[in-house]
Amino acid sequence: MANLASTYQSQGRLDEAEKLFVQVIEAQETKLGVDHPDTLTSMASLASTFWNQGRLDEAEKLGVQVIEAQETKLGVDHPDTLTSMANLASTYGNQGRLDEAEKLGVRVMEVSKAKLGVDHPNTLTSIGNLASTFWNQGRLDEAEKLFIQH
């Protein structure tokens, strides 16, 4: 069911994806528990669906909930946690909350460098995302430095 929901999301069938993700999460919470990694992954996917629907406040709320659970269950340096943090930073950026996006983006970049290495694709993505945040803040020199590093 989760795979079908992801397929719907990829096809842009966001309402169908949302409904199916909700069903998946309800079943996973019952069978696996609210903090099981599979449940958290489905919740992150639902947050992404909200983001794609332009429902940024709901994406933010669910994203924060997912990150808090992932940090406890998986750790702050787990790739899933870092991905959720990067997604939340993107949500903040789209909400115009650039200082919060920057703070979270810096954290993702630093942890990614330490955990995954400076040349890992996820680390490079986090550097590019932070550079974009700097660009949106009008901090062009800092953005340029990161883009060159990226």
Automatic annotation (TrEMBL):
Domain of life from the UniProt record: Eukaryota
Pfam families assigned to the protein according to its UniProt record, in alphabetical order: TPR_12
Protein name: Kinesin light chain
Organism: Sporothrix stenoceras
